[in-house]
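Can anyone check this?
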Amino acid sequence: MHNKSELDLAKEVAAKSQNPAVKRMAEQMVQTLSKTHEQLAQTAKEVGLDLPSEIAMADVQEVRIVAALPADQMDRYYTASAQADNADDLSTYQSQAQIAQDPRVRKFAQDQVSGIQDSTQSCNRVAQGMNMPYGGAEAQPAGAKMRGDR
């Protein structure tokens, strides 16, 4: 899901969730994603890129569908989605922090890693409280040695 659609979904969940832990997680995600989007826009501007202003229609539809779910289903979907997005984002940013050619892009990626790790821990606590799967292996950058590798 695109950062803007993740932000829209977090806003919907923060407004509609009846689970205090999910509501707090979504509110924190709104703050984090807003800050990340501002930093991304600044970095893109510095390197001469324009960020797309439109969200893909599929992402818009996903936000609408999830927001229309009964509260308990929306909470579970959002929590699982946040876990998956965090794992994907962590892997991407860790890799870009190592391989990006432009130092501004590399710094942006490096700056995102600890926040995503914190968000992942928060999502996992919420998932655990909802008796959902949580934890597991941390995302690793491409080429990283995994435990058990020789």
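Reply from J.R.: I decoded it. Confidence is low (pLDDT under 50) at residues 146-150.
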